[in-house]
Amino acid sequence: MGVNTVGVGTPNHRKLVRTPQEAVAGITDGALLLVGGWGGIGVPHELILAISKLPAKNFTVVSNNCGMGIEGDVGNLFRAGLISKVITTFPVHSEAIDYLDQVKKGEVEVELTPQGTLAERLRCAGAGLGGFFTPTGVGTELGENKESRIINGEEFILEQPLHGDFAIIKADIADEMGNLRFRFAARSFNPLMAMAARRTIVEVKELVPVGEIKPDDIHLPGIFVDTIYVTDSNS
Amino acid sequence: MNLPKGWSKYEQAERVIKYLRPYSYVNLGVGMPGIVAEMLDHTRDIYFHCENGIIGYRGLEPGEEIDPDIIDAATKPVGLISGASIVAHDLSFSIARGGRLDTAVLGAFQVSELGDLANWKSPNALIAGVGGAMDLAVGAKQIIVMMKHLDKNSQAKIVKKCTYPLTACKVVDYIVTEFTVMTITSKGLTVIEMADDITEEILATITEANFTLDLSKAGI
Lengths: 235, 220
Description:
The complex is a heterodimer of chains A (235) and B (220). Chain A is an alpha/beta fold. Helix content of chain A is 19%, strand content 27%. In chain A, strand 2 (32-35), helix 2 and strand 3 form a beta-alpha-beta unit. The radius of gyration of chain A is 19 Å and the shape is globular. Chain B has 220 residues and is of the alpha/beta class. Chain B has one domain (9-217): Glutaconate Coenzyme A-transferase (3-Layer(aba) Sandwich). Chain B has helices at 9-18, 34-39, 89-97, 133-139, 200-205; strands spanning 24-28, 46-49, 54-58, 79-86, 103-106, 110-112, 117-118, 142-146, 158-159, 174-176, 180-185, 188-194, 211-213. Chain B has a ten-stranded mixed sheet with strand order 4-3-2-1-5-8-10-11-12-13, sandwiched between helices. The longest helix of chain B is centred in the N-terminal third of the chain and has 10 residues, at 9-18.
């Protein structure tokens, strides 16, 4: 209490786009896409649908899940045949039909990674670090052929940072500088993916004037956000 | 062989709850462990952590309105306790790996007498998901496996050595099945509780690993 922010931060209208098509227009063949969400929530449905209609293909997609039968989840990108490789933690779902089909046919390469390892690989990329040693996966087939080291008597394996070309994320509220707030468990991977990507495209429910989200209440600063699409902006 | 019925899954959950420490932070795996949150009075001193970043969830009250952004590891709608907090995935797994999480209650395909855990993949399966299982298994201070004693083909799941792909080595502390509660220590497997309708002899026929019996440790 008692601290006033001075003046008004300059709204960055260059970040705002009117349509999901405009938001994803810069995505090209072979791009590595970090797609936010976990367990069907925090998923940027409109952006994914727009990507599924792009002429670009051969994407490497990073996503916790591989489709749960929800229109506008990663399943749409599999259905459109746009994914050549996926890095994922929990693709198993009865509604991940296109994923299952393409894996069985050998049409998509799968890199399965423990969930905490995926989170930390993204964080590492965003933080400018060269990797990290984790105890997760030691002695398992997911830890095979990875460099290992004994540190303070315990075995760890080396994991690499995971950089994205684009992060496709969902937030609840953005202000006009791109500062974001997320809603409950819909936060999950979204801020980490924004940090790890060269460009971050965010789908938000609501856009508010600069200053309306107080400094202590911002979950992810606008420095990590490049493009904002507001889902109700056409209404 | 006609096996006795043993405990119901609710009685199994009651056994698990007995081994949770007061004021502890607990992660519940997908499947059978989810019953533990439904069974626990949410005014009790146990806080449930979920991979998705929720610290302090609870089972829904009857008729309570659901919020689509508040779900558990099985993506089932849950509620929040007063004092709940939300973090992103890096912090959620820092909690899991960093030694803050007191207990993870996990399902399993197999557990070995050394405490090796196999719970993410069938042998040679083309499709598998690992989720947070490996992080939780190596990170939580205490691992309780809650599972059926036998698999669908009536094969023993408590084995000398796991034949399923491992999740983590030497991590399991307790096994709670419909027939028994066992502990795993450096001395091996010890049966500390048995359902009323089971005998040590029957238990030995449905358990591949060797075990000893010490019912004086029940509930400790």
